[in-house]
Amino acid sequence: MMNFRGKAWKFGDDVDTDAIIPARYLNTSDPKALAAHCMEDADATFSGKVNAGDVIIAGKNFGCGSSREHAPVAIKAVGVSCVIAQSFARIFYRNAFNTGLPILECPEAVAAIETGDEVEVDLDQGVVANVTKGVKYKAEPVPPFMQELLNAGGLIPYVQKQLKKGAA
Amino acid sequence: MSMTISEKILAAHTDQAEVHPGELIEARVDFALGNDITAPLAIEAFRRAGAKKVFDPERVALIPDHFAPNKDIASAMQVKMLRDFAHEQGLPHFYEVGRMGVEHALLPEQGLVLPGDVIIGADSHTCTYGALGAFSTGVGSTDLGAAMITGKVWFKVPASVKFVYKGKRGPWVGGKDLILYTIGQIGVDGARYMAMEFTGEAIDSLPMSDRFTMSNMAIEAGAKAGLIAPDATTEAYLKNRAARPYRCYASDPDAHYDAVYEWDISNLTPVVALPHSPGNVRPVSEIPKTDIDQVVIGSCTNGRLEDLREAAKVLKGKKVSPNVRCLVIPATQRIYQDAMREGLFEIFLDAEAAVSTPTCGPCLGGHMGILAAGERAVATTNRNFVGRMGHPESEVYLSNPAVAAASAVLGRIAHPDEL
After folding, report:
1. Which residues contact B127 (CB under 8 A, 6 or more apart)?
2. Taking Cα atoms as reference points, which of B262, B78, B366 lies closest to residue A29?
3. C-alpha dihedral sign at B231, B234, B240, B244
4. Nearest chain B alpha carbon to A143
């Protein structure tokens, strides 16, 4: 069961991976080092003010641009529990599942939630609740295959299972 | 059932006779690659899975190109991780500085990526090889790590969208202008999750280098892939180059497309993408006077020999403006050598431009030409996001090599005809 509760931080459309984690910090893949610069070029003070459990709210095409997996890694490591966007860029979408960052597509919630609102997310049910305003939204369901990947614990455990099958 | 070129290639890499958009498939991978930024995480994933051997050492390339030659100690450590893994696994396609090139220029040049292939790379511009009629797409490091083990990758079969470019290209109009125009029309998520297919009279007459430029930037429209069906131009490029046999596919005439765009590009003039989006596209002629501080001619988008020739044509006998640093970065060692032998370096050096060894370097704000706050660059690269080439308050304008060269001379965004 995956539930999260935290404060909303709202961003606009087309937030690219250079804004999420600028390439100048990619000489390491250490999650803590990356977290210190998370969202830096969109909001230079973000990593200092975000608290564990907080939620990123974003417009369309979140995570566009480079394939760097450091982007979902940085978001997860800075303490963000979930990203709710109108839509996601496709490589970021894959990377989020592969690295275990929960994400949901929910245009209605994105339109209504403001920075500072208290948000509660029920990932299994795909329900986003704006606690501050007392409104609930239903997110796009996670496709069954992605659910299977999540249940396996991500892509690597999934591959491990396949390897074991091959050896047997 | 009739299929697009993407659907045919994907089906041929499964045990299915056909595939349909939206369907989840597991496809065999012909080639997989990573670079000095993405491969370290892929190698970690590989180890975490408990794997011992890559699925086929001939089919995995590791290319230290982003921060190489190593810009600092941390980057050197990342490249060392690639080198050690390549030696351990006996990977023949690990390219050390001196043999190295920007990955998406290097692999086609070496004949390692071919028509009909399914290719994944832990780099978003892996879509470049679509220009050869391959299904080629960027993934993350964990996906690469898994594919290095299994030789397979899961995909959602993308819907296809077709672009028909009618007419003949005007002067100074290249593949860069066609793709920037396209992104300007459909937006940076206009082809999100789709396979773009570039066709029409203007594509038929387009040289291979310009085709690579177009497919390279498919990701900038959100696409999964950007394909051009192989033809005589493709075959000529592959002659004496292809490292293994390959198969050419073409879309069926009645294949299904989610959308078809038809444009007559006869009147298209050179364009520029203004900050901070590759979709913010205007004709050069309509841009008000914009002073610049730097010009970068290079990258996986426009660092090929033909691009350098375009720039040299403009720079010959001219001087770079005293207010501008002009950096020319041939994309591979072979391009570097060919450009030197053709006398292009003499033109660049006489113009007081700097010529660098191959690297992605400034394109992603790594090294070799970082911008200060308030500075502006015209670059033949692919992205102009906030902070892409340096300080978050710097600006990048994307153009073709001739516009970049003309801008270097005049110290402002300029059309080559202004010289």
Report:
1. B136, B137, B138, B215, B216, B218, B219, B223, B224, B225, B226
2. B78
3. negative
4. B24
Chain A residues in contact with B191 by the CB 8 A cut-off are none
Torsion region of B330: left, alpha or beta (phi above 0 gives left; psi -120 to 50 gives alpha): beta
- For residue B28, report the phi and psi dihedrals to the nearest 5 degrees: -70, 140
- Using a CB-CB cut-off of 8 Å, the residues of chain A touching B364 are 18, 23, 66
User: What is the distance, to the nearest Å, from the Cα of residue A156 to the centroid of all Cα atoms in its chain?
Assistant: 19
Q: Show which of residues 8-27 on chain B sit within 8 Å of chain A, judged by CB atoms.
A: 24
Q: How many CB atoms lie within 10 A of CB B297?
A: 31
CB A55 within 8 A of CB A4: yes
Q: Provide ipTM, 2 decimals.
A: 0.96
Interface of A with B in 118-157 (CB under 8 A): 143, 145, 154-156
Q: How far is CA B177 from CA A146, B202, B278, in A?
A: 38, 12, 11
Residue A122 to residue A129: CA distance in whole angstroms: 8
| Helix residue ranges per DSSP H, B239-377 | 299-302, 305-315, 333-341, 344-350
State the nearest Cα–Cα gap between B78 and chain A, in angstroms.
7
Q: Which two tokens stand for residue B182?
A: 């396209």
What is the CA angle B232-B233-B235, rounded to 5? 60
Tokens of B384: 């102009």
Give the pLDDT confidence of B7-55 residue by residue, as tens digits.
Answer: 999 999 999 999 999 999 999 999 999 999 999 999 999 999 999 999 9
Instruction: With CA atoms as reference, report the closest residue to B362 among B387, B336, B333.
Output: B387
Task: Report d(CA B38, CA A26) in Å as an integer.
Answer: 9
Tell me the per-residue pLDDT of B303-355, one tens digit each, with 9 for 90 and over: 999 999 999 999 999 999 999 999 999 999 999 999 999 999 999 999 999 99
Q: Which of A11, A26, A97 is the best residue to mutate to test the B interface, defined by the most B CB atoms within 10 Å of its own CB?
A: A26
